[in-house]
């Protein structure tokens, strides 16, 4: 299939920040063939494939959004522990989370993905770290869901092996043994990981956090990931309580602790990174370690404001994340562009903190950077994968904002009129094409109630 999109504004998010007030895109198969000003050339190469022309008047085309941090299973436990900070929130939720099973995870993953994809996400990550014994193939369940929805997916195989009796935060019944966690993670890589350019599925190695994982698991997980050539992901420097935990237990802050266990590097990205000293920011920059900025979750759990302007100025790769929907009930990424801009302006850099274009870059190219996929995703350029979103900006919510990028970032959530993932339409006129969202809503409610009843 060849798709020609014309008469729209285009923000390519390439290195030069090229934009067209009125431009075109030509997509052949799963790749972008051409991007440029004005209408598409009248003569298109005829390779015999069907041709679709899209008149995208009133829309803005951007690269698909990349969500770099999430916990899909939390879709079933939204709206709980509403006024708690991270540690109290976790302790309150662990008992319920430890009762999840394969059907619940599959349903929660479908719901989480449907919500994000309908809002312009084309690449998604799930960090899943709770694997109760005898509850089925939880990683396989979310991989199946991602395949059904048709999203480009990284399953970050998480783990926890530091239960309360060993000084960790999670209860003992919620953790695995170190050996079980490593063996299952290696098996996930061997079974599922696709290193190819157009991969729809990759695996990352993702022990949960310094207060739920042993030093030995962190060390061995880093070795495993490097032996297999996959990326590393975890939570880092999220709260003052985590910082105090690291100083008390290891005699150093989280970033120094991560460095001592092999966890800084250009193959690593960490969620949050709120409580960072200047030396921590410099260490991330020196090693090329990436950050998943999750502004709504950080606000919901009163964690603080990540130093995004400082991270960017130092050259640290930064993407955006929804985080789990038990700490960000919205579940949408396109609203995080606005939240990232607004929340960072409340910090010391004030109005210079983050521009609308920087917010768009975080959500697209920045996300591709932290996932190590700028070769094929993150910007609209010939030769890249056709992960493209059209946002309709001539309706009530946006028509008086002349700058389309400002309309997208500062205005209300913009309707997605078309989303392509690898050239395949997954959303048209705000409707998900690959799944029935009403059926998913009903199933998610049923599974959420089932989890509440059995915990
Ligand atoms: Zn998280």
UniProtKB/TrEMBL annotation:
PANTHER family in the record: AMIDOHYDROLASE-RELATED DOMAIN-CONTAINING PROTEIN, AMINOHYDROLASE SSNA-RELATED
GO molecular function: deaminase activity; hydrolase activity, acting on carbon-nitrogen (but not peptide) bonds, in cyclic amidines; metal ion binding
Domain Amidohydrolase-related: 61-400
One Pfam match: Amidohydro_1
InterPro entries: Amidohydro-rel, Metal-dep_hydrolase_composite, Metal_Hydrolase, MTA/SAH_deaminase
Name assigned to this protein: Chlorohydrolase
Species lineage: Bacteria, Bacillati, Actinomycetota, Actinomycetes, Kitasatosporales
Entry keywords, A to Z: Hydrolase, Metal-binding, Zinc
């Amino acid at each position: 299939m060849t798709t020609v999109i014309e008469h729209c504004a285009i923000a390519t998010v390439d290195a030069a920040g090229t934009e067209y007030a009125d431009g075109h895109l030509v997509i052949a198969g799963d790749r972008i063939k051409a991007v440029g000003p004005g209408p598409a050339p009248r003569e298109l190469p005829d390779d015999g494939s069907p041709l679709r022309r899209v008149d995208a008047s009133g829309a803005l085309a951007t690269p698909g959004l990349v969500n770099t941090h999430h916990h899909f299973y939390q879709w079933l436990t939204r709206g709980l522990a509403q006024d708690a900070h991270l540690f109290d929130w976790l302790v309150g939720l662990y008992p319920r989370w430890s009762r999840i099973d394969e059907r619940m995870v599959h349903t929660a993953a479908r719901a989480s993905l449907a919500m994000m994809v309908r809002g312009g996400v084309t690449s998604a990550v799930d960090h899943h770290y709770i694997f109760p014994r005898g509850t089925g193939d939880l990683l396989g369940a979310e991989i199946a869901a991602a395949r059904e929805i048709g999203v480009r997916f990284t399953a970050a195989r998480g783990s926890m092996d530091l239960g309360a009796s060993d000084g960790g935060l999670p209860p003992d019944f919620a953790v695995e043994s170190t050996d079980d966690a490593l063996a299952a993670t290696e098996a996930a890589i061997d079974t599922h990981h696709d290193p190819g350019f157009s991969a729809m599925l990759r695996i990352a190695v993702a022990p949960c956090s310094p207060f739920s994982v042993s030093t030995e698991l962190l060390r061995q997980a880093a070795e495993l990931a490097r032996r297999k050539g996959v990326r590393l992901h975890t939570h880092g420097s999220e709260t003052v309580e985590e910082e105090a935990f690291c100083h008390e237990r290891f005699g150093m802050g989280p970033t120094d602790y991560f460095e001592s266990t092999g966890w800084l590097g250009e193959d690593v990205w960490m969620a949050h990174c709120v409580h960072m000293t200047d030396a921590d920011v410099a260490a991330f920059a020196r090693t090329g370690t990436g950050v998943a900025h999750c502004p709504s979750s950080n606000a919901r759990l009163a964690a603080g404001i990540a130093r995004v302007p400082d991270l960017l100025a130092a050259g640290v790769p930064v993407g955006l994340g929804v985080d789990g929907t038990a700490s960000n009930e919205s579940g949408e990424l396109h609203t995080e562009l606005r939240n990232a801009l607004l929340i960072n302006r409340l910090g010391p850099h004030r109005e210079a903190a983050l521009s609308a274009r920087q917010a768009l870059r975080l959500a697209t190219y920045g996300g591709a950077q932290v996932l190590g996929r700028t070769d094929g995703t993150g910007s609209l350029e010939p030769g890249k994968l056709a992960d493209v979103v059209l946002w309709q900006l001539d309706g009530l919510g946006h028509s008086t904002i002349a700058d389309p990028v400002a309309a997208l970032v500062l205005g209300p959530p913009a309707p997605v009129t078309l989303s392509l993932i690898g050239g395949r339409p997954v959303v048209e006129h705000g409707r998900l094409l690959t799944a029935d969202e009403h059926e998913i809503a009903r199933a998610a409610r049923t599974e959420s109630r089932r989890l509440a009843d059995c915990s």
